[in-house]
Amino acid sequence: PMKVIQEPNMVTFIFEGGAHVWRQVPVAPRGWLRHPSDPNPTYLGDSIGWWEGDTLVVDSVGFNTRTWLDFAGHPHGERLHVTERFTRTGTDTMAYTATMTDPETLTRPFTISLTLHRNTDQYAQLMEYECHAYAEEDVR
Fold first, then answer.
1. d(C-alpha 8, C-alpha 18), whole Å
2. Which tens digit of pLDDT belongs to each residue from 27-47?
3. What is the C-alpha to C-alpha distance for residues 124 and 121, in angstroms, rounded to an integer?
4. Residues 108, 114, 115, CA angle at the centre, nearest 5°?
5. Taking CA 84 as the corner, what is the angle to CA 70 and CA 81, rounded to the nearest 5 degrees?
6. I need a surface site. Which of 7, 23, 41, 64 has the fewest CB within 10 A?
7. Distances in whole angstroms, Cα of residue 30 to Cα of each of 23, 24, 51, 63, 136
């Protein structure tokens, strides 16, 4: 589950699961924002966004190599480039596509597409996440 918060110049994605995982994406007209020339590699990369009509486009670079492309564990390199597109298709649905290019691990770009569904339960909220990992000697 995730929550999307849209402000005039920023979109924030808050994810349930994982400790304190969120993305803040600055949004401006296309070409106004730039990635750093040498971004410090992070788990979620450096993201910038712009609107193309009613579609939010999020462009991300600067990933570290500690994450996977999918739940099967396929790796990527630090030159991974992801372009995401979010388009509302109905009151409670959003089309999502992500195109990934990575000359270090992929022979060609690939795109995934899916439909995101809004939870219409008025009382639904993101749940807290706690992970307490202890070494065996810590619990003796």
1. 27
2. 999 999 999 999 999 999 999
3. 5
4. 160
5. 70
6. 7
7. 19, 17, 7, 22, 52
DSSP, residue by residue, 17-35? SSTTEEEEEEB-STTS---
How many CB atoms are located within 10 Å of the residue 124 CB?
11
What is the 3-state composition of the chain as percent helix, strand, coil, each rounded to the nearest 5?
Answer: 5, 45, 55
Q: Are 80 and 68 in contact (CB under 8 A)?
A: no
Tokens coding 28: 């401006």
Which residue in the block uniquely carries the two structure tokens 């992929």? 106
Token pair for residue 105? 């691990």
User: Mind listing the pLDDT tens digit for each residue in 78-89?
Assistant: 999 999 999 999
Is 45 in contact with 59 (CB distance < 8 Å)?
A: no
71-129 pLDDT, tens digit per residue, is 888 899 999 999 999 999 999 999 999 999 999 999 999 999 999 999 888 777 887 77
Q: In what order do the strands lie in the sheet with 2-7?
A: 2-7, 10-15, 21-26
